[in-house]
Every structure is written in structure tokens, then in C-alpha cells.
Amino acid sequence: MSFVSPAPLREDIRADFPGIAGRPDRVYLDSAATSQRPESVIAAEADFARRDYAAVHRGSSLATGEATYAFESARERVAAFVGAGEREVVWTASATDALNVVALGMSDASAGLGGDRFALRPGDEILVTEAEHHADLIPWQRLARRTGATLRWVPVDERGLWTIDDLRAQLSSRTRVIAFAHVSNVTGMIAPVADIAALAQEAGALTVLDACQSAPHLPLDLGRLGVDFAAFSGHKMLGPNGVGVLYGRAALLDELPPARTGGSAITTVTMTDAEFLPAPQRFEAGTQPVTQIVGLGAAVDYLAALGMANVRAHEDSLAAELIDAVVSVPGVRLIGPPPGAPRAALASFDVEGVHAHDVGQFLDDRGITVRTGHHCAQPLHRRLGLTSTTRASASVYTTSAEIAALRDALGEVRGFFGADR
Question: Does 212 participate in catalysis according to the annotation?
């Protein structure tokens, strides 16, 4: 099988990724779950572990200074990559952890532990969508239960989609938080973030953006979009697992009670109280995943060198091919925007008469890696009348030939299982 990448990315880009380089029979279409890492990211982690490994922000030794420089340099580059200030980027264990940091901080504020502007009361409302990943749903469920607030949601249609008018219809004078995904990990729908942020500001509500599926694929300027908080993860953007990012406007982060407490996040501690540093350090208690953070810095360097406008153009082309491949196969139902509509380069689908897990196994036997299941979005699947779907997703190293291989194999699934009779 010969792989050639569409313009504008260079044709030999796959050589940068040891997980797929030199493996012409491996078709990797699961980047929305976990992306492959380029050699530069692997090398950055290994080099730091070999040469510069030491505690950060602890002590005054040369080793500590060098490690701290690497740690903070990564923060500076990640912040620039997403249009944030350095004080607006907080290291977390994952995007899920980042979203929990916001929800738990609001819970503490509601309990009287500071940050009054974040306190929720009975009758206040938290607004999400029916399409949310569990990581951007369950924290808000629990916050509502703790505070007496009401959890409301924007319903989706038969394709799993919602509009800004649908969201506007759910807004009220009691809405305090609007949490939603920039790009749905199931449908590929791209939300109108700036318009929603403007609505939220008019309503006096905070916006919390799940940017996991947008940070690796779209040019992202969080400051210009106007959101208050955002979260994304390293392992979906060519970087390591075990590290995520919480973005927050600096003034808000300085007031939000820290969800994790302990060493390195404080100024003064007595036996009865503690005072915390300004952001971002107030949220970074304990030993941080420094090696992974260095790797994430290298990952954004790699993406920035490609140019996110180029990445978007490449993946726009692949998205069109991917949708055409899916809808060309009889008996396959596409979830999300119809052909021709804007979307990310991922496609979830249901094969009539064949369980998604069987579809995934059939494809895997032919060397095609996809994701099966509910993709941590059970309410969305339930609304669609499904328990699970199969999802194929692209990244910078994905090629037209890989999508053609998916199309050809997908065309054999129903016949293999006798579902076309």
C-alpha cells in the first residue's frame, strides 16, 4: 500500500512518526482517541529524562534551575500556541482533570472557601449539551448536586447536532455556566465558540470549553474566542499522555479556589490556614509531570512548524474524503453533519445489522485501527437510538490511501456478517 499525503503538508511526514513509519500495512484512523507521536516529541522527553531531570521550582541548585527552565519554557510555547498568556496556562493530569479543577473550584467557592463570583446557589443553572463527552458532563452533574443548582442541556437532533438557536432557547437569567465542546468527538460538529461566548457574556455566565478535539486540528486563539476556561490534552495533539492543560483568563484563575492543595502552590502556611500563590502555580500542587510537559512543548513546536492553517487545510480535504467513503457504502449510517457541511476530520457511523465491536474487529483484522463504543458519550448515543458506533479519525499523518482502504474494507463488512441478505 502506498501512502501519499494531500497538499499542503509534505509527502514524507509519516517518516516523522515511528509508530507508523515503515509500516505500510498499518492504517491508523484513531487519532481522535490518541494520536501518534513524532520522533521529536519522543526525543525531547528522552533527552530531558537523561540530561536535565530534576525537581522544578524547588531549591536553588543549577539542576533545579535548568529543569525549571524547561518546564516553564514549555508553558510559554503552549500558551502562545493557543493564544493565551503564560499565567493563563495551568498544567493538569489530563483534560478531564482540568475540567474537574474548574468544577471542584466552583464547588469550594459555593462552600465559602473564596472566589465568591464562582459560588452557585439553589436555582442557579449550569448549561451543557446533550452531545458532551462524559468529562464535560459528569463534573457538572456533581456540582449541581452539591450546590442545589439545576443542570440543563441543549438537545440534539436526529443527527446528533445542535445550533446556537437551540442553546439560546435554554439560556435564562439564572444561567451561570455554559460548558460545551469546540468539536464533538462523536459527530465532528464544530461549535460557533465566539458567538456562544458573546451570548454568555451578555447573560453573565462563565464559558468552559472542551478543546480536546480542536487544539490539535484547528488554529486556536482562546483569548480572541472570548471563553473563560478551556481544557485540552497532550495525547490527542501528538504529545504524551499524563498531561493536560487548563486555560483560564488570568483574573479568573487568581480567584478560583484551587482544587488540589499541598506543596508548591502556597505562600504561607500555618497550622490552621494557608494562602495560595497567584495562577498558575496555585493550581500546581505537588510534583508535576515534568517529562510529559517537556514532550507537550515539543508537540506544539511540531504543530506550529507545520502551520495550523496548513493542518486545517490538509484535514479539510481528508474530512471530505472520509465522509464520501462512509456514505458511499450501502447500509452505513453517518452520524453528524451531512456531506458538504463543515466538520472535523472524524466520522462516526453505524453499520446496519452489525454491532460496532464486530465492525471494529473486522477492520482491525485488515490492519485498520478505528475506535468502537460510545466514545464516552452515552447520552448522545442514547438519543440516536444506538449503544455504540464505529469512529474513524484523521490527523496530520493521515493519507488519502488510508481512507480508501477504510472504504474498501467497510464495503465488505455487511456481506461478511450476512447482514446484506
Answer: no
